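Good morning C.,

I know you're traveling, so I'll keep this short. The sequence:
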Amino acid sequence: MDHTTQAIVRAARHALIAGEPVDVGRVAAEVGVDRSTVFRRVGRRDRLIAEALWETTEKLAWPASVEAYPPGTPHRAARVLRAYVRLLIDEPWFREFLHRDPARALRILTTAELPTQGRMLALVTGLIASEPPGPVDLAPDALAFVVVRVAESFIYADLITGAAPDADAAYRVFVALLG
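The tokens, ready to paste straight into the viewer:
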């Protein structure tokens, strides 16, 4: 990503973290480019939001979760995933983003339409592959798919079923799947 694109994504991330909607015009003005530059560099608004969310995951949330449990920690993969799920559940700006436009948020985060889902699957596949095999005999990528869907079910429970999001319940399922 070149400097201008990084600045565009960073400005969008700052808007999200401030609990504000991502406005392409405001992002462009903040960076000192016009709207067409934002679209040319990143794409449409949903892609910009996806990139901003991913930057937060890649640079902050995922590393914090992984670093909390060094290799050799019992149930490491399950604990890392619980920490990540808890971060998302407890983060006010993220909850605000989800509730502002739930259909858009879930589309950005959980479908193949944008790169977020594939990138998350790759992170979780890498985590699973780095640990000893667990009780479920599935390839790491297939197991990652199941685990990510379980995580999403508990992170977005309030949007999907009206139930409270629950990192500890997710953890129990992760342990059953991953050991």
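Safe travels,
E.
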